[in-house]
Predict the 3D structure of the following.
Amino acid sequence: MSAQYIDTPEALQALCQQLSQVEWFTLDTEFLRESSYRARLCLLQVATPELVACIDPLPLPDLEPLFELLFDRSITKVLHSAHQDLEIFYDLTGQVPGPIFDTQIAATLLGQGDQVGYGALVKEVVGIELEKGQSRTDWCRRPLDNAQLDYAADDVRHLRQVYLHQRQQLAELGREQWLAEDFAALEDPGRYSNPPQQAWLRIKGSNRLRAGQLAVLQALAAWREQQAKENDKPRRWILKDEVLVDLARILPDKPQQLSKIRGLDDNTLRRHSDTLLAEIARAKQLPKEQWPSPKTGPRLPPEQEPLVDVLMALLRQRCQQQQISPGAVAGRRELERLVMGEQELNLQQGWRAAVAGEALQRLLNGELALMVIDGQLDVIERE
């Protein structure tokens, strides 16, 4: 089935009329964000059992007919690793499409791998090795040739079979509702907004700073976020993460000190040195109760590390029985938090609780015990 190429309002309207009649369609995007704050949407691909289409947003005056379908709750949108695609739509409209079915998330419940890539999933389910020759395409350049359009269309063409296969498997295993919370979480606008005051949480190296220094990092990261957003430039083009961390660590208060920090070029110093010093000085004056909390939280005492190892063994056993990747249920850090008595963890909610979370808590409570029987790990009820 060859893909339609949609680049006029009339063709888009006709396509959306067809899409409005279906229960689901597959969806993907091609975008560039190397030189901008927000991703630039360059191409949208959709497919139903009857059609495949590539929508070119560059010549179109708007995408309103398609947006109406993306927010139509009667039509399921099927994507693979949906976060970045949904972020683009959130940036364009302030809303998140839904309902969503993410085949990468579904794969974790079907023994198809944790964070499995689209190509690997297509090869396993459909038996086709996808072409990789266009992976470095500049999707903003026009015209797009047939090879590029075929490559893009494959991202939704084969996704149809993957979706139908996964949906059937989930039904056979009685797991159709297990992913409802995970898919609903993808529609939370908070996942895609970037409040400047929270920008410091994404900076590598912040765990090496003390609480007072984190207040400075928070102020500088918020300033950079605002600058990047206003000028539509990548954050690293304003200031790199390591420079922000060094500024928060060294706490310069004179222009001469700024000039000694590696990564602060002359152009940046000329334009922003006064602002940087003012942000640092202001953050240093904040009262302690306004300092941000370190990301790491309390650490597990060394004497409890073996207990986490035992929980990990039970987690692996339960997931092996269900043919689910343990990483999809919980990582070691979450097991540490369980040992330290934290509540409302992901593994205590929904399907994760049914697969392993409840058993892990019962083991901690002393209600279960692990034994080796005939060379196999087994779980027994304690009297």
